């Protein structure tokens, strides 16, 4: 149901990819466990007091019978497609959603919170769940998992699971460049190093808690988000190169961290999952991927709206989101997420399919 509105070629390629990967994988990864921001939040923010929500229409209109879930998309997000590719559930539930239980979470769960970042100060902007709190939720999850499965089986899930981390964009766009504070404390290079240090500490703590297979996600070309292009009046509403260059530089530092951590921790198998290149290709050559619109989003005017500004009553919202790279001014459409997921699975996560 969720995939029926994709362009036929993308739909067929994705289904064939899933069938092949499931066949090869044979269920070797028992669960997908997710940390991060709105790129991987499937609804945790619905259950905390924050304005950073998307549990209303038109969000989710092409998924789950049109019922909004809290995903910042018209449908599924990247981690949902990754879970499906590994032969697990087709949609990863949010940990704080009371309609799910540990039996659902045993094969996949997300602790992510929209608008959060590596930096605690970023999570404070919209009063969302900081990364350290997501880790506390994960510790509680482990206790519930052991009570549900028993120690031996639970430990097998914990060590065999694939851990996905996707966070960082908000640290720059919603914190460092948006409000006073960090920019007066750090140069941008120092702030990058500060964030990388937090990433290192977080992955080390995950390792200490039993995680071995970890995917550290990079930043997208954030200067090409419709919100940033809308504000680039002097640049003709083109992509903001300075933000793209920053994302690429930060990604290089995260990749270096992955190499360092793998050498430091025995048995750690961490990979760097980089969405930058594939999303830039989509933006630069949209027709190749079946898209028509890259500069503005589907929702409302497509220039600056996200969250509550994406009203279901807005007359400008597009009728076919599959023609658009972006759903709102900050987040990609379901179709874009499916392409990114395919790329990430085939290029970064493939090693976990053959272990």
Automatic annotation (TrEMBL):
N-terminal signal peptide: 1-26
One GO MF term attached to the UniProt entry: hydrolase activity, acting on ester bonds
InterPro entries named among the record's database cross-references: GDSL (IPR001087), GDSL_lipolytic_enzyme (IPR050592), SGNH_hydro_sf (IPR036514), SGNH_plant_lipase-like (IPR035669)
Taxonomy, superkingdom: Eukaryota
Alphabetically ordered keywords of this record: Signal
CDD domains xref list: SGNH_plant_lipase_like (cd01837)
SUPFAM superfamilies found in the cross-reference section: SGNH hydrolase
Pfam hit, one: Lipase_GDSL
TM stretches of this protein: none
Sequence similarity: Belongs to the 'GDSL' lipolytic enzyme family.
Protein's UniProt name: GDSL esterase/lipase
